[in-house]
Amino acid sequence: MSAHVSVLLHETVDAVLADPNGLYVDCTLGRGGHTAYLLSQLGEDARVIGFDRDPDAIAFVSARFADDPRFVAVHAAFGDLESELGSLGLTGQVDGIIADLGVSSPQLDVADRGFSFQVDGPLDMRMDPTRGVSAADWLARVKHPDLARALRTLGDEKNASRIASAILEARVEAPIQRTLQLAAIVKAAHPRWEPGRHPATKTFQAIRIAVNAELEQIDAVLPQILSVMKPAGRMAVISFHSLEDRRIKRFIRDQANPPGDPLGLLPQPAPRLRPLGKAIRPSTAEVEANPRSRSSVLRVAEKCAVPA
């Protein structure tokens, strides 16, 4: 198993640091790389609350930071951010929020999690394997139009209809329950693929996003981030493909330039976010050291003060 390397580590954490004794949230704990660096920069009165829906991640970081009283782990999807912080009485008090979207290296590397087309394992793909429907169960029930649409829109798969047909034909013969079984079906159905890239890459991505409702989670959490931050609080979000990044970019743009009354009868709404700089991408050195960082994009914004 490869060690997990946090992407854009210093850029992300440094972007949100303000009060060294403030309150910070890591929406996507993973193995705690961003949180570890964040804690190293904070004072003894600071607090860091970390979210993850993966129970393995929660167990790992709880042990990793067991001796640090500034840290609290919450086993929940980041789409529950506002309700979880509200239950702690912390709404509107957060100084900085970071999120590293998508799947983590440990999830990809552990065969039993079912995320990888390179090793054999049960076709699960759930970020929280204690909840929801596995990829195997989803594939057993999905209809051709819905599967083809998912492959096309969530995986940018040009051969979506052909692959969807192959999957549905194969499941008539036997349930699709293993990762390499699905990968072989896709490979046989794929007329051609990019050199150096496995033909099942986009299919696995699309199914993973669908099973975990990843885009719905992003759409849910963005307005919640705005609600839980204090004025001048900062958000830093890392995305890994255009479906994610477009949502982040559009949200920041819309909050920075809220639409006014088309008739001009009402005052122009005040901006609620201020973008900080342009999108940040990993350096050549980082990509060489950690190829999984190559598609990452970091966007940072600051919550505007409430107008007097």
UniProtKB/TrEMBL annotation:
Binding residues for S-adenosyl-L-methionine: G32, G33, H34, D52, F78, D100, Q107
Q: Which domain of life is it from?
A: Bacteria
Top EC class for this record: transferase
Q: Name one GO biological process term.
A: rRNA base methylation
Give the EC number.
2.1.1.199
Q: Kindly give the SUPFAM superfamilies that the UniProt entry links to this protein.
A: Putative methyltransferase TM0872, insert domain (SSF81799), S-adenosyl-L-methionine-dependent methyltransferases (SSF53335)
A single GO molecular function, which one? Answer: rRNA (cytosine-N4-)-methyltransferase activity
Q: Which GO terms describe its cellular component?
A: cytoplasm
Q: Which reaction does it catalyse?
A: cytidine(1402) in 16S rRNA + S-adenosyl-L-methionine = N(4)-methylcytidine(1402) in 16S rRNA + S-adenosyl-L-homocysteine + H(+)
Q: Which PANTHER family match?
A: 12S RRNA N4-METHYLCYTIDINE METHYLTRANSFERASE, S-ADENOSYL-METHYLTRANSFERASE MRAW
Sum up the protein's function in the record's words. Answer: Specifically methylates the N4 position of cytidine in position 1402 (C1402) of 16S rRNA.
The name on file for this protein is Ribosomal RNA small subunit methyltransferase H
Which species expresses this protein natively? Litorivicinus lipolyticus
Taxonomy of origin reads:
Bacteria, Pseudomonadati, Pseudomonadota, Gammaproteobacteria, Oceanospirillales
Name of encoding gene: rsmH
